Amino acid sequence: MTRKASIIGGGVIGGGWAARFLLNGWDVAVFDPDPEAERKLGEVLANARAALPALSDVPMPAEGRLSFAKSIGDAVQGADYIQESVSERLDLKHRVLAQIQQAASGVPIGSSTSGFKPSELQQGAADPTTIFVAHPFNPVYLLPLAEIVPSAKNDPEIIERAKEILRDIGMFPLHVRKEIDAHIADRFLEAVWREALWLVKDGVATTEEIDEAIRMGFGLRWGQMGLFETYRVAGGEAGMKHFMAQFGPALKWPWTRLTDVPDFTEELVDLIAGQSDAQSGKYTIRELERIRDRNLIGFLRALKERDWGAGKVLLDHDRRRRAAFHEAAGTGEGAPLVMAHMQVLPGWIDYNGHMTESRYLFAASETSDAFLRLIGADMDYVAGGHSYYTAESHILHLGEAKLGDRLTGSLQVLDADDKRLHIFIRIQRGEETLATIEQMLLHVDMKAGRTCPAAAAVRARLGPIAEAHKALPRPAAAGRHVGQRKP
Amino acid sequence: MTRKASIIGGGVIGGGWAARFLLNGWDVAVFDPDPEAERKLGEVLANARAALPALSDVPMPAEGRLSFAKSIGDAVQGADYIQESVSERLDLKHRVLAQIQQAASGVPIGSSTSGFKPSELQQGAADPTTIFVAHPFNPVYLLPLAEIVPSAKNDPEIIERAKEILRDIGMFPLHVRKEIDAHIADRFLEAVWREALWLVKDGVATTEEIDEAIRMGFGLRWGQMGLFETYRVAGGEAGMKHFMAQFGPALKWPWTRLTDVPDFTEELVDLIAGQSDAQSGKYTIRELERIRDRNLIGFLRALKERDWGAGKVLLDHDRRRRAAFHEAAGTGEGAPLVMAHMQVLPGWIDYNGHMTESRYLFAASETSDAFLRLIGADMDYVAGGHSYYTAESHILHLGEAKLGDRLTGSLQVLDADDKRLHIFIRIQRGEETLATIEQMLLHVDMKAGRTCPAAAAVRARLGPIAEAHKALPRPAAAGRHVGQRKP
C-alpha cells in the first residue's frame, strides 16, 4: 500500500526530502506558501530523478504521486510521516508545528532544523512526544545522513518508527543520544567555517586555495572513513593510543584561532563572495549542482562496490527492495523461457550514451542465474560445493539499449548433458532483440576444481526443459565466430 | 634520464614519498637510522604498488631503483630533489638540514613538517634559499595535495622547480603564500579534532557516531568540492552572498566549544582508544589501510571520469606521461600492448567467490577503451560524433580471478581497416591468462547510425600498430566459436 509523506516547506531541503520520498514510491503532499514553490521543487526533483536511480541496482519502484496542498491541515491529512523544513525562526516553527498537530496525531514529525534542539521545538506543543529533529544534508536525495535527535519527552516508539521510515527511503538515521546546539556534524562545519573565514580575512589563502586544501587531501579521506578511523590508521600498528600520544600535545599549540570570532563585516562578505566568483563563477549554480551530484554518485558507487560506509547503506537498501521486486516479477512462461526483467540504470551507460557492453553480459548472467535457480542449482547448491561455471561466451550486438529501457532476458537450451549446458540468451526490448549471448556452461566440483555430473535433482529438472527446447528453431547466431560473414 | 630523489626519514610519510617517486620512475635513496626502516618502507611500498597504478590509464614507467644509504651525505649525493620527513623536533630538523646542505647545494629541500614554518626551518641554515615546507597527506602515494610553503628567503626558482617536480610525480602543489602555523589544512583538522574530543569527553557521541556523522554527509561533499564551493551551491541561484547572509549570524551562536581546549588526560585517551577499538578493532591496521586505499582509488577514479578536482590532477598526469609513453612504446612491436591495470574489488565477486563473468568483459572494455584513447578515439572524438562500437565478442575462460587479484589487460590488433578493428585481449594475472576476449569493433557515425571510415588522425596512429602486430603469432582462440573442440 502506498504511504504518504507530508513536506512542510518546499525549499532546497524540503524539496530534497520530497524527491527522496517520491522516488522511493511514497506519495508526497507539499505545503509551501511561496508562489514559486512548485517550480523550485520541480527543479530539485529533476536533479533527483537524474541522480538517485543511478545508485540503485534494483529497478526503482513506481514514483509516488506529488501534490501541493493549500494548507498545512490538508497537507498532513492521512500522513504516515511529516517533515518540517521552514525557515530557522523558532516562533515560526512553533506556529507550524501547532498547525500540524491540530490535523495529525500520533504521526512522527521530523524537523530539518540545524539551529534548534528538540526540547526547544517541543516548547508549548500539544503533544511533544511526536516532535524531534531529523537533520539532513544537502543534497538530501543523495547523502544518506539524517541526524535524529530526540529529547527526553519523545515517545521512543515514534523515534524508532521514524528511523525505520528513513531507512525505507535509503537514509542512514544517526541517533544522537544527547541534545546539543547544532547537533554533531554542524559543529564541525562551524569550526572549519570560522577558521576558513579567518584565513581569507587575514589574506593567508583565497576561497579557492582553501577548497583545494580540503578536496585534494583530507576531504577524500573523510568521505570514506571519518576522523577517528583515519587517525587510527595513521597511528600505524601501534594504533589509536600511539596516534594520540603523537598528536595530542599539538592541541596546546596555536594552530587555530581558538578564541576569536571574525567580525562579519560587509568587507568580509564582499571579499569572500568576490573570491568565490573568481573560483566558481564560470559555472551556474545549476551546473555546479549537476557536477556535485555526478561526483557524489561516483563516490557512492565506489563505496557500494566495496560494501563500505555509505555504500553499505545503498546495498542494504537494494536488498530490501530486491525481495519485493522478485515477488512482483514472477518466473515467466513459454519457450524460450523469459527469466529476467531489467531496467537500464544510469550507471550502466557508457560515454557513447548507450548501455555499456559489459552490462549485456551482466543482463545475460541475470538471466542464466535465474534459470539455474529454476533448475535447482541455487545458492544452497553452490554452498554444497557444486556450481555451473561459464567456459565460453559469444555476444552479438544487434541494437542499442538506452537509459531507462525495460529489458527482458530469455533463455533457450541448445544442448545439455550431465556436465555440459549449452544455452542461448536473447536480451530484448519489447519484441526487438538487442543482443544474443551464446554460452557453454560446465558443471564443476568446486573443491576438486574439475567438471563432474550435476546432481540427479538438477538433471531431473533440466532434462524436460532441454527436451522441449529441441523443438525450437536453432538461432542463426549459434555457432558463430567473431567476424564471420552474415548468412 | 632517470632522476634521483633522496628521502631522509623513512616512516609512513617518508615511505609514502619514496613510493610515489619510485613508481613514477625516479631512483630513490633513503636514509633512516631505524634498523627496521627497510621492512617498514617495504610495507608502504607494497601498498603503493597495489594502489597507485590503479589510477593510471597510461602504462606506468619502469619502477626506479630503491637504495638505502648509510649516511645523509651518501643519500643526497647527486639528488635532484630532497625530502625531509624526520620527527617533529626543530633541533633534529636543524641538524638534518645542515648535514643535507653539507653534501648537496642548489637542490630543492622540502620538509614534511606540519608543525614548523619555513622561516623556523631556515634558522641558522648555510643556505636558507633551498629549504621550504612540502607538507603531504597520508597516504602520500594516493592523495595529491602537497602544501608548498616558502618564506621570503627562498629562491623563487627553487620553489618553481620543486612544484614542477611534484607535478611530475602526480601531485598537486598548493602554493601557500603566507607562512602560518600548521599551514592551511591542518588548521581545519585541528579545529575538528578539538571539537570531536569535546563531544566524546562530554558523552554526546562516540568515535563511531562522529565518524558516521562525517562520512555519511559532508565528508562526501568535501572530497569533490571544498567548503566554499559547497556553500556556494547551497546558497542556490542567489549564490554566495545569500548563503553568507543566512549562515553568517550563526557564527555568534554557541555551536562550538570556542574558547576551551579539553585536558588531555589519561582518562580521555583511554575513552577514545576504547571507543575506537569497539568501532574498528575487527580490522587490523593493515586491513584498514587496504580498505582506505581501495576507497580512495574509487573516489579518485570517479573524479577522473568527471575530469574534476583531484581527478583532473590524475588526467593531467596521464596526459604528460602519455606523450612519454608514445615515444617509449612505439607500436608495441614484439608484444601486445599492456593497456590496463586493475584489481578485483569486492563488488566484482559472484556467489561462487570468483570474479563475476560480466567483469571479464568489463576488464576487456577497460583495456580497449585505453587503446582507443591511445589512438586518439577519446572522449573528445566521441563528443564530435564518432566512435567505435563493439559488434561482436567471444570470451574464453581459462582461469578464475579472485578478490584482490591484480590483473592486466593487453591488446593485440588482429586486423584493421578504415572501418573495422579486430582485436584480441588477454586478461592476465601475472603470466597466467585468465580469459581471452576477441572483438570486432566498427567505426560509426553516431548521428547517422551507420559505419564510416575513422578520422585520418586515428588511422595514422592505428596503422603502424596494426602493421607491427602482424608479426605477432595469431592466438589459437581467435576465430573460435562456442563449444568448438580444443585443437
Please characterize this protein's 3D structure.
2 copies of one chain form a homodimer. Chain A has 487 residues and is of the alpha/beta class. The first copy, chain A, folds into 3 domains: 4-175, Rossmann fold (3-Layer(aba) Sandwich), CATH 3.40.50; 188-282, Orthogonal Bundle (N-(1-d-carboxylethyl)-l-norvaline Dehydrogenase, domain 2); 331-469, Thiol Ester Dehydrase, Chain A (Roll), CATH 3.10.129.10. Chain A is 43% helix and 19% strand. The first copy, chain A, is built from 16 helices and 14 strands. The first copy, chain A, has helices at 12-23, 37-51, 72-76, 90-103, 118-122, 156-168, 185-201, 207-222, 227-234, 239-247, 266-280, 285-305, 310-329, 357-374, 379-383, 456-469, and strands spanning 4-8, 27-31, 66-68, 81-84, 109-111, 131-136, 145-149, 172-175, 337-343, 386-397, 406-416, 420-429, 432-445, 450-451. In chain A, the strands form 2 sheets. An 8-stranded mixed beta sheet of chain A has the order 3-2-1-4-5-6-7-8, with helices on both faces. In chain A, strands 9, 10, 11, 12, 13 and 14 form a 6-stranded antiparallel beta sheet that branches. In chain A, a hairpin with a 2-residue loop joins strand 12 (420-429) and strand 13. In chain A, helix 1 packs across helix 2 and helix 9 (227-234) packs across helix 10 (239-247). Chains A and B meet through helix 7, helix 8, helix 9, helix 10 and helix 11 of A and helix 7, helix 8, helix 9, helix 10 and helix 11 of B.
